[in-house]
Specification:
With 652 residues, the protein is an alpha+beta fold. The chain has three domains: 11-54 and 224-342, Beta-Lactamase, CATH 3.30.450.20; 74-212, PAS domain (Beta-Lactamase), CATH 3.30.450; 431-648, Heat Shock Protein 90, CATH 3.30.565. The chain has helices spanning 7-32, 35-73, 75-82, 86-102, 132-140, 147-153, 216-222, 244-247, 282-290, 331-382, 397-458, 464-493, 505-515, 517-522, 540-556, 592-596, 613-623; strands spanning 105-112, 117-120, 164-169, 189-197, 205-214, 250-254, 261-263, 293-295, 299-301, 304-312, 324-330, 500-504, 525-531, 535-539, 562-573, 576-585, 627-632, 641-648.
Amino acid sequence: MALLRRISTKWILTVLAAVCIPFLGFAWYVDTQTAERQWEVVRYYLLTMASDLAQRLDEELAERVSDVELKASEPLTYWAVTEGGAFETTAQGSFERFVRRSSAYDLLMAVDEEGRFVVSNTTTRDGREFTEELRAALAARDYSLEPWFRAAMEKHVDDPVQAVLVDHHVTTYLPREVDVGTPHPANYHVGIAVPVRQDLDPTRVVGVVYALMRWDRVQEKVLKPKRPRGFERIDGRPDATSLKIYQTSYAWLWQSDADTIIAHPTTSLYGARVSQPPVALPQLVDAARAGDWGFYPEYSFKGKRKNAAFKHCGSVDKGGLGWIVGVGIDNEDVTVFIEGLQDVLLKATVSVLAIVIVLTVIVARRTTAPILELREQTRRVAAGDLEAHVAVKSSDELGELARSFNEMTAQLAQSRKQLIKAEKDAAWREMARQVAHEIKNPLTPIALSVQLLERAKAEKSPEFDSIFQRTVQLVARQVEHMRQIAADFSAFAGSKKRNPEVLELGVLLDEVLAEHAAWAADARVAVDRQGGGGRIFADKGELRRLLINLVTNAIEAMPQGGKLFARLERIEDAGARRLRLTFQDTGVGLSDTVRARLFEPYFTTRTHGTGLGLAISARLVDEMGGTIELENRPADEGPGAIARITLPEHGE
């Protein structure tokens, strides 16, 4: 039983089953079944290849569109279109590298929102320079008259399909690459136009990037049925008894009207109508128009009976051009295949069986050895040992796997070091931002109180002495507050302990409101203090910081003035006594987007600040055993926001 569980044994048995059973079964199948069964295989092949080619065409077109969209979204392209100058030269180099690297385009250019030429590649994909006449012609064109330009400029930012495609055509922008009397794939292109959007306002289109994709890429590299490997003789000549079906199948491409040929092994048929001479097969047009995927009726062309299948590519609303792919085969090639298959199978079965057994045993033993070694090294990595290493003993897939494993462990070790460093750097950066945010809040009442003191002195106010005394006291408190902030963050970086004590929340609330009274008056904000007080057990500095954050946010939410209500009350929550502090302003309120991200670090809707205030507040409330909520005022009460803080009362 242990022998049967080995990979080498399973491999040998699997290969024997995979080789012997199909050979014997297929020989019987050919002997006992009719030719109609073989035709089912042929039709399945045609239908599958039509679908495969349609998918490959859609993927090729989508990839090309993605290339152009990427260039249109690059900051360099945006700067070249909007700023010009030195950016045009840099963008030109970028466009030329893009054309040479991809080898799928003959032209890539950008025009501004007025349709004026901005920049393009000036060399072909193989490095040949554009002529001066061609450069001048490209620069002199008014592209605002082109349909693709107008369509791209009108693309909405929410449109799922941003690209505008110009179907199979001979461009007037470039000279013909192959000057022959009949159509040639190198002279045809597909145009791709993508809008260039403004960074700060994506709804505004500031220009268009336009590319010409080479058609010979479709004709020669994409539109070819893939053939199974291993069905050719050593001398390269096709084996007529086994590969006719694959070697003689061919593909073509029609436009979305299902009647115009745009790709075909016979390129002289480019532009020909299928329903008209010299093709004259209207029944194929009717079949293609009747469904998205299926078979053409059997037909004759140039004296040969044929079978074919078709598949529609992606439609325009899905980013495609609605092409129809056809894959066909000559009936006589299928007949040759059926007649020769039995003889080949009978002769090959015995010899293949012997060879497979010998080779499988050798390969299985050589394959399982490095796999077992890789298993052991993988266990070392799983245990945390990133020094694990597999010896590379071959250049095949297993050797490549061993090299990849070694690279992976080396990268994991390096990534571990980088991650540790990045985490340390991120922690210090966050601490620095929080320090800056926390110190900013005490500076506001200090600045306003000093201004009030200066004004009282300048006006020789009889209350100058009392104002001076209050200002000195306020500045002293705020300086002490900032000193406490610095001490807190210093302790956060080390091992500072909190100093909780029993506090009167109402008294602390009154102090914070008094400190911000001058600012509130200057901002035309009336403060209405309601409710009594209550005791809680908390760190005074942290609680003060929490109240300052909420009062500051409320005042800043009323740039045109308003009213701030601060109410403190006792409530019963799940049988426990708690204190609820409510701040209600008459400001601009909160949008759904802002409400969803209120407590995220560094998120802010202001042009100043670090966006840490509410994040710190949420953390402080959570650590005090309480809850914090922010929401809009009821619609019938007018605009504004409500902040509710619930904290456990001392003794609970």
